[in-house]
Amino acid sequence: MSARQLLLGGAHEGVSEAVTSPCFSSSFSTTWENARSTYEISGAEPGKDFSSCYEKAKTAIASQNVHKPAEISNQPFYAFSYYFDRAVEVGLITENGGDLKVSEFKTAAEKACDNTAVPKVSDNADWLCADLSLISALLSEGFGFDD
């Protein structure tokens, strides 16, 4: 949730602001709260755009100076929690787990942002473009994993 907050431009507690984001459809509008901050979020015109959303995600991740340990770049990465939840939600793996490449998160983000082949399976579906872009940016740009 803190990564979402960074994507929206806020990293401080107690913020209350309106945000327009290319990670949401133009008809999207919601109030979202995290870390005692409140965001009135609306989608950008003309709607979701992967390139713009991914660039925002990369900027958010870069602002955190994530350590890129060289020894992990070609090693298996075990995804838990929200990585797992989102991968299951978009069909990259099953509830029993599975193997996937980092590039598959990015491809899923592109599809979520372009509204192709992404069913609305939960209330969090509106956040798929943002969340998958953040996950992709963290794995590739932040940690330095190859596709």
Q: Poorly predicted ranges (pLDDT <50, ≥5 residues)?
A: none
Shape: globular
- Helix- and strand-based class? alpha+beta
**N to C succession of SSEs:** HEEEHHHH
Percent of residues in β-strands: 5-15%
Percentage of helical residues? 25-40%
Overall description:
- With 147 residues, the protein is of the alpha+beta class.
- Helix content is 38%, strand content 13%.
- It contains 5 helices and 3 strands; from the N terminus they run αβββαααα.
- It has helices at residues 2-7, 50-62, 81-89, 102-114, 128-142, and strands at 16-21, 29-34, 37-43.
- It has a 3-stranded mixed β-sheet, with no helix packed on it.
- A hairpin with a 2-residue loop joins β2 (29-34) and β3.
- The longest helix is centred in the C-terminal third of the chain and has 15 residues, at 128-142.
- It starts with a helix and ends in a 5-residue tail after the last helix.
- The mean pLDDT is 88.
